[in-house]
Amino acid sequence: MNVTDDPGQRVLAYHEHSKHRPDRYAPGPGHLDWANQPEPFRTYVGAKCLSLPLQAERLEVLFAELYRPLGTIPAAEVNLASLGVLLELSLGLSAWKVYGESRWALRCNPSSGNLHPTEGYVVVPTLPASGRDGGVEAGVYHYVSRDHRLEQRRVMPGGEAEAWDRLFPPGQFLFGLTSIHWRESWKYGDRAFRYCQLDVGHALSAIRHAAAGLGWQVRLLTAPATRDVVRLLGLATGGVRFGGGDGEPEHGELLLQVGRAESGGVSMSPRVAGLAEMAGQGPWMGQANRLSRRHGMEWPLVEEMAELTRQPWQAEMAVSASPPLPPMLVGESGDVRAATLIRQRRSGQAFDARAWLESRELWRILDATLPRSGCAPWDLLPWRPRVMPVVMIHRVRGVESGLYLLLRDPERLEGLWGALDGNFLWSRVSDCPEHLPFYLLRPGNCQESAYWISCQQEIASDGVLSLGMLTAFPAEFPAWPWIYRQLYWEAGMVGHTLYLEAERAGMRGTGIGCFLDDMFYHLLGLRSERFQTLYHFTLGSPLADTRLTTEPPYSSSAAP
Ligand SMILES: Cc1cc2nc3c(=O)[nH]c(=O)nc-3n(C[C@H](O)[C@H](O)[C@H](O)COP(=O)(O)O)c2cc1C
Q1: How far is CA 284 from CA 52, 77, 153, 262, 281, in A?
Q2: Among 1, 34, 48, 74, which residue has the least CB neighbours within 10 Å?
Q3: To test the ligand 1 pocket, which listed residue (112, 499, 520) has its Cβ within 8 A of the most ligand atoms?
Q4: How far apart are CA 119 and CA 142, in angstroms?
Q5: What is the C-alpha to C-alpha distance for residues 513 and 187, in angstroms, rounded to an integer?
Q6: DSSP string of 30-74?
Q7: CATH number of 347-540
């Protein structure tokens, strides 16, 4: 990497440095140190635990209903049971897979290499007991997906709990996300920072979908400083080693304000510093577990990226509404239950190269990535879409194979037009619903390109389509390098929506983090470095791997 002091330039240099190229992949460990594979579950040893009920099965809501405007699904009370449903259907386990001696967990949120760098925390006011479930004391809790339990990191003592509770609008709480970079850099080296951010994006969308099932609103707090996120979640306390133990560092990413919407638009952002101050006075309970006995190789660039993209306190970003759209397209399988679909989501490992997708399913899948005001999942982000899928259509009935672009924000047309190959057709696809801004750029078979661009992964050419997510770094980027994380979060959210919609179409998706950035730009005839691709994806008809057996996610639940 070229050395410069400017944080924005350093982030751009990282992006360049972490590209995979045909003759050289981004610097990584070269081999996998299996003996020191990071433990996939963080726990705080010694912290008091709170078992969460397993009740997602009881959620009657249909998947299609998640996309209805806020208020359509009656909002659940915030209590232990509803917190349990939210966590079970977002960061919870969806199954265990067994092959020979190996057994590994899958979760509702996917993760590059199934390494799961994202950790979840809830910051709650005092929650009353309800039915057979006890109440929850005011404080900060870490979620352990393996056991579906909360670990009590910080409890506000009697006198302070009242002041703490007053900082929460009625029926609302905070959900914090963090990343343990080591989990990803153990396998992916310098490229790990990208993957951690994409995984955060997947978690965001998973949380938004699950919260919609409870009739809750979720908003990303864009104002709080990363420093306060770290303090509030107890990730580092006054120079003491992380969590008081020798666990690998965990980086603060973001806070979400979650819950019933009746309290109007009161943002908790201005209260975060106060909450962090109160929480920071400790004591914190439990010590973060060590994930790998030994770290053979260190990846300082990934840690440096975390520093460079830390956000200072910012004015809250105003919600920037997108142009109004007609109601979402309805699919064939409109009656599948949300909990069933969310838990059946998997990554396709191999696709049937002869399968076709029906065009009406393609329109529905693309439609789900367009933001509708007041509707999940896109109401979580205040900004207008910055990520545009460039789609290589291989086999969709009635749609010519070729290279297409979905303009998720019509205002981006001119910029893209000027940046991509001057010979592209930009012809609006006439057979698709009028409101879908889907453009044919160039007809022709793209399977071979998809294969090579995706690090020679056959899923990209055997799928019915494959796509790359193009973004323009916004003008304010060099001065505000934390936007780098936000771009990845949005790309991860697009990926997550595609995963769920693929399942709804009777197909399967797979996120593709391994791609050759510049080869994709070559295909697009890209003429500007402002545009970069952040994430790739493929979708197809899955071929089952009969060698694996599936076990239920939790001992008291049935395998989905
Ligand atoms: C950001 C990201 C990048 C990924 N990249 C690839 C990839 O390049 N190739 C692949 O086969 N799977 C890829 N996957 C899929 C993961 O391997 C998969 O999510 C993980 O093994 C967990 O399995 P599940 O999605 O079935 O829960 C990726 C997933 C994510 C979230």
Answers
A1: 21, 28, 5, 32, 9
A2: 34
A3: 112
A4: 8
A5: 13
A6: SS--GGGPPPS---EET-EEEEPP--GGG---BGGGGGSPTTSSP
A7: 3.40.109.10
Q: Is the pTM of this model over 0.70?
A: yes
Give the CATH number of domain 7-308.
3.40.109.10
Q: What is the DSSP letter of 260?
A: -
Does the beta carbon of 181 lie inside 6 Å of ligand 1? no
Does ligand 1 have an atom closer than 6 angstroms to the CB of 512?
yes
Helix (H) or strand (E) holding 387: strand 387-393
Only one residue has tokens 């007991």, namely: 129
Q: How far is the CA of 181 from the centre of ligand 1 (A)?
A: 16
Indicate if 347-540 has the same CATH topology as 7-308. yes
- Please tell me the least confidently modeled range out of 129-143, 286-300, 483-497, 539-553: 286-300
User: In this model, does residue 452 exceed pLDDT 80?
Assistant: yes
Tokens coding 237: 């306390």
- Band of residue 2 on the pLDDT scale cut at 50, 70, 90: low
In the chain, what are the domain boundaries? 7-308, 347-540
At residue 59, what are phi and psi to the nearest 5 degrees?
Answer: -70, 115
CA of 509 to the centre of ligand 1 (A): 9
Q: Which residues pair with 150 in a beta bridge?
A: 50, 143
Residue-averaged pLDDT of the chain: 94
By the 10 Å C-beta count (0-12 exposed, 13-18 middle, 19+ buried), 60 is classed as: exposed
Atom of ligand 1 nearest to the CA of 107: 27
